[in-house]
Amino acid sequence: MTLRMATPLIYGTVGETFSERAGILNLGIEGMMLMGASIGFLVGFTTGDLWLGVAAAALTGLVLGLVMAFLTVSIGAQQHVAGLGLTIACSGFSFYIYRVSVANVGGVAPHVEPFATIPIPYLSQIPIIGEVLFNQHALAYIGLILVPVSAFVLFRTRFGLSLRAVGENPNAAATAGIDVFKMRYISLIIAGVLSAIGGAWLSLAQSGMFLPGLTQGRGWVCIALVVFANWMPYRVLGGAILFGGIDAVQLSLQGVGWNIPYQLFLMLPYVLTIVALVAVSRRARAPAALLLSYKRED
Amino acid sequence: MAFFTVEKRLLPSRRLNIAAPIVSTLVALVISAVPIYVGGVNPLYGYGELLYGALGDKLAITETFVLFAPLLLCGLAVALAFTCKFWNIGAEGQLYSGGLFASFFAVYATSIPSVIAIPAMLAVGFLGGAGWAAIPAILKVKLKVDEVVTTLLGNWIMTYAVEALLFGPWKNPATGWPESPVISDTTKFPILIAGSRFHFGIILALLVAVVFYIIVRKTKWGFELLGIGGNQTASYAAGINVPRQIILAAIVSGGIAGLAGVGQVAGIQFHMTTDLSPGYGYTGVIIAMVGALNPIGVVLASFLLAVVVQGTQAMHRATGVPWALAEGMQGIILLCLLVGIFFTKYRLKQGRRRS
Predict the structure, then answer these.
(1) Would you call B38 an interface residue with chain A, using a CB distance cutoff of 8 Å?
(2) Quick check: B161 and A80 CB within 8 A?
(3) Among positive and negative, which fits the CA dihedral A233, A237, A243, A247?
């Protein structure tokens, strides 16, 4: 259950880590998740092929990443504002596109049969951890693999090195021959694709429907998780599991029937996110050029 | 790279600075026509309905002003914080906080005459919003915690808290709805135009805009905030107490947003409700940017957005275009504006880059 809730967080946060490592704070992530959820659902619904939906979501994310890159890298707009504008636009359009494309059939919201979980033979029979680790959706497995892969790419490839250099000191990187614009564009494309897939997971694997507020602010939590993970992929996994766990706990607590308003439980992940941010703020080592725009002629 | 090179403009042009927001908005409207068309509606007809619904008759205009008030206050709140680069995205939560605390007071103020009750309620609401903004402000200044995330998450926390209260201990015993008991008559804002909802809070919002202008342009504090926003390091060097001013700016910003909440409670809803605001706080960010953080710009931008929001509601009722379009349009306006701002600072010249 925890891994289930953590999966979109893993995708979103890993994606965001890439963009922030290159120096861009991508506040459009919430919007990218929503569009991924919406388009992924619509394509999955109309074609009956869920994986096609995921692919469509990925493509959407790519386009959105390009838009974000255009705004922050080429135009040099303020990153906070560009991201927020993108998220606001995507929030509206994700729901608009959905409404325009499908009508409620007899009062029942259109839904798809969500992705089934894929139990890995033998391994999933192991009591307790077998159920948790080896009986998950395909996308969750991919998400788990994503973590070591991204760590490898970031820290053990030339590409990763160039990307990190761009995030630490773009001027020095440019002098060394690295194309700063290109690196930042690529990092935002990665962020867009991954966040959109994370969003598609929400509509195609978790709920089978698209609803307003499907993301529940998870995109923002991802932003916080990047800080919490000190911009390192393995810690991202830890953070996502932690918060996925809190989410899962909060859901089950609601059923317990204590005389406490359920909204207090809903609040819990956000409060704890802030607490976590505060806790790690001391030793946070952000990429040095995060948020600074880079201009060629300066 | 491409066939254009980007060149910084040496002399920013006044005409361009004014033209840019206007052209950007027009471009945004053109772009938004595409989804409207896809939705099966003729955009020209749709925009006609939009304009008529916002400005076409007395009811429309007064309703546009009703929307204008909270948007203006949120825009001012955000603009103040952004002036010193405190990215307050939490206006939404601060609005609710202000409304909440104000209604605590207002429900029980039945024996206090309006002359005292209303200013007191405003003060309480201001403090409510200010207090909520203080948390992310202190976290940012003392612990360097990024305020974008804390103010944003704060919105969720506050709206859930309001829900918890209104569904629970503070539910209206008379109706059973998740709203507070009705506020005292002495605290309701008077209606200023008969037959409409045009209330005192609208004038109040304009007053706040005037005060804002005075603060930012005429006081030392405003000047220091501008300095901090321009170059924080230089401000430190000039002896400005940067942390204190940032916290103050954030608190006042939260207070102004809180006033927006008070206005909604005392002027429109007369209860504390769970839906005081359909996102005014976020629209406030857009307004602040469109208005270039200056009070006159914010007033104009707020009016523009009030027209857009009111108009799209009318358009939705008349044509069936889903309401979510309005949010999308707001985002597009902001993005087009960012491109417009770019063109005020840079020009494109043909030809390859000569290194």
Answers:
(1) yes
(2) no
(3) positive
Which CATH number is B57-319 given?
A: 1.10.3470
Q: Provide the residue type at B335 as one letter.
A: L
Chain A, nearest residue to B139 by Cα? A278
Sign of CA dihedral A165, A169, A175, A181: positive
* CB contact B150 to A (< 8 Å): yes
Segment 79-98 of chain B within 8 Å of chain A by CB? 87, 89
Q: How far apart are CA B294 and CA B296, in angstroms?
A: 6
Q: Which fold has domain A2-115+126-281?
A: ABC transporter involved in vitamin B12 uptake, BtuC (1.10.3470)
Which of B39, B150, B341 has the CB atom closest to A274's CB atom? Answer: B150
First to last CA, chain A: 50
Per-residue tens of pLDDT for chain A, all 298 residues = 667 778 899 999 999 999 998 888 898 999 999 999 999 988 888 887 888 889 999 999 999 999 999 998 888 888 888 898 899 899 889 988 888 777 655 455 677 777 767 666 666 566 666 556 666 777 888 888 888 899 899 898 999 999 888 888 888 888 888 888 899 999 999 999 999 999 998 888 877 788 877 888 888 888 888 888 888 888 888 888 888 887 777 777 666 665 666 777 778 778 888 887 787 776 666 777 776 666 654 4
pTM above 0.90, yes or no: no
User: Cβ–Cβ of A100/B40 closer than 8 Å?
Assistant: yes
Contacts of A81 in chain B (CB under 8 A): 285, 289, 334, 338
Domain boundaries, chain A: 2-115+126-281
Cβ separation A277–B87 shorter than 8 A: no
Token pair 């908005």: residue: B25
Q: Which amino acid is at B186?
A: T
